[in-house]
Amino acid sequence: MEMIVKGMIQVAGTTYRIVRLRRCQYNVVRVLDDAVVGGFSSAPQIQVRPISVDAALMREIARVAVQGAKTSWVGRAAFLE
Fold it and tell me: Is residue 21 a part of any domain in this protein?
């Protein structure tokens, strides 16, 4: 499986790398220690998969990634609110 780095984002003072695993599936890696902290999917609906962070933080990371165009996400306005 080819993983593609989509970019970096910063949330609450911490930098994360967004890695595309497959269509609409992303892992979130904390840059500080190169640890996967969770992931999210963007279709058919947004779902977060927190591992070592809480669900609210993972949702915020996903929101920032989508708004920053770090995903191939095709627009669900309600998620961005």
Answer: yes
Sign of CA dihedral 48, 17, 76, 72: negative
78 in a structural domain = no
Report pLDDT digits (tens) over 19-77: 999 888 999 999 999 999 999 997 777 899 999 999 999 999 999 988 887 776 555 44
Instruction: Please choose, from the candidates 38, 66, 70, the residue with its C-alpha nearest in 3D space to the C-alpha of residue 54.
Output: 38
The Cα 17–Cα 5 span in angstroms is: 7
Domain that holds residue 36: 4-72
For 8, 45, 52, 75, the CA distances from 78, given in Å and listed in that order, are 23, 11, 26, 9
